[in-house]
Structure formats: structure tokens, C-alpha cells
Amino acid sequence: MVVSGYAIAAVARPLVGLATSWGQVLAIRFADRVGKGIRTSPRDALIADMVPPEKRGKAFGLQRAMDNAGAFVGPLIAAALLKFVFDDERPVFLLAAIPGLVAVAVLLFALRESPRPRAAHAGEAASGSAAAGRAARPLPRSFWIVIGIFGLFTLAMSTDAFLLLKARDSGIPLWQMPLLWAFFNGVKAVGGVPGGALADGLGRVWTIVFGWAVYAAAYVGFALAATPLAIWLLFAFYAAFYALTEGAERALVADLVSSDTRGRAFGIFHATVGLAALPASILFGLWWKLWGPRAAFLIGAAIAVLATAALLAFRLRAGEDLGRNSA
Fold first, then answer.
1. Span 239-265, mean pLDDT?
2. Domain containing 164 — which CATH number?
3. CB 241 within 8 Å of CB 214
4. pTM of the model
């Protein structure tokens, strides 16, 4: 499933270079997102299976760091190609097929997934029924509580496009926008592994709490910022939120469920975050339109504080470090 998801994206994305209408671009982007939906949950479950519980935070932090490193290096390479090699963007999109297909080849030929034990011959049917029963069993109550809190926090997470709009309104020239975005992704990439390692040492929940507190503080900063220098500094500070939480959240999900339900658990996690992202951005846009950007950012910060308090209360009520448990 991981291979198929990456293969769909590797084939679909470069086709933007051949598109001649917005409808074609929409269809290509839809296919790309389908590929992402197919691969993300099984990929996270695979990572959780490949490393011991005490290193899951670092492993997920590394995965997110590599993803953000690509978001940092890729646009810079594209800009260089457009500046010095090509006069049109279409060849750049087509060349993007190369790293995508290389990644698929590595998955196919360099990675081997350990097969799950199965009974032989007459016992295979019974074994399959037992495995299906384990996969269908209810997920623990603690998992659903955490997912609900994650959904609440996601309502504070509008699209980062609003941050770029704020940067433009604060005086950052248009030509600096790609540099600002590359800088942001670069800081996220640098912080991913240390943030994940912190989740292994300090605990998943405490690391997420600190990360969400950084998010709330950053949104307060964006509400008050009025100069380009303040925006650059805030983008670096805001990147720490991703470094602290992206690996820790996935590690916590992996810890809360058993290995044979982990794929379903990650599917629910990503679906919750993805579905909540749309109303979050719509609401933020409405707040921006009705009351201005300062109020929109402050409301987002308030929701983040509420979700942080809910997660902290759940952690304290549980009476144990959930981040150190493994199922």
C-alpha cells in the first residue's frame, strides 16, 4: 500500500507540466492526494513496527524532517532550474518524476516487510479469521479521547497560507516569499529529529503540550507583528511547533494501540486531522474577514490553549506517562 501510494503521486505530479486547463490540474492534484491518503497511514504503521517503542518519537521525527527537507530543497532546485536552465516551468514539473520514481524503486527493491506469522494449510483459514477479529476489535478509550483532543486542536490550525498573507501585509516583498517559505521548512527539517528524540525522553504528551503552547504563542505573535523582521523571527519560532509535535503525535498514536490495529488507528488519526483542517481554514477566513487578522490569530491561539489544557488534564488524570507506554 505504501508503494502504490507513492507510485500514484510519482506518476501524477509531473503531469502538471502537460496540463492545459485548470480542470486537468485539479484532476492531477486529486490523484496526487489520493496517493497520499493511501500511503500515509500504512507508512506510519510500518515505521512504528520497524523501531522499538523507546525510539518511535525519533523515528517519526526523522520521517517528518526528511519530508520538510524536501520541501526546503525542492523549491530551491526548481527556482535554480527556472533561472539558469529553462525558460518555462513545464520541464521542471516533468523532471520531478525522477526523485519520485527513485523513491518507489527504493521501496520496491531495498525494503522488506516482515511477514506476519500464519498457520499452515488447514489452520490458515482459522488464522485469517483470528487476524481479522483482532484487526476489527475496538480501539481503546484513551485513543479516542486523544483523537478528540487532536481534532479540537486542529480547529485552531488554519492553512499556513494565511501566514504568508500576514507576511505580505507586514511589508515582506513578494520576491522574498519563496525564501521565507524555504527558510520555514528548513527550520522544521532541522528540528524534526531533536523534537522526536525529546518525545522519547520527556514523554509524548508533555512534548505535544509544549509544542501546542509554542503554537499559541506564535499565533499571538502573528496577531501583533507589524514588521518584516518580526515575521521572519516568528516563522522560525512557529517551525518549532512542528518539530515538537509531528513526531510526538504519531508516536503517541502508535503507543496507545496494539500493533494489529495500528494501521486503522493511523487512518483515523489522519482522517480526523484532515477533515478538521477544512472547517478550521473556513472559520479562520471568516474571522479574518469579519474582525481582521489580529482577532483571527488571537481566536486561533485561544482554541490552541483550550486543546492544550484538555490534553494536559487527560495526561494528569491518566496518572501515567502515556508517551512511555507501548501496546
1. 94
2. 1.20.1250.20
3. yes
4. 0.85
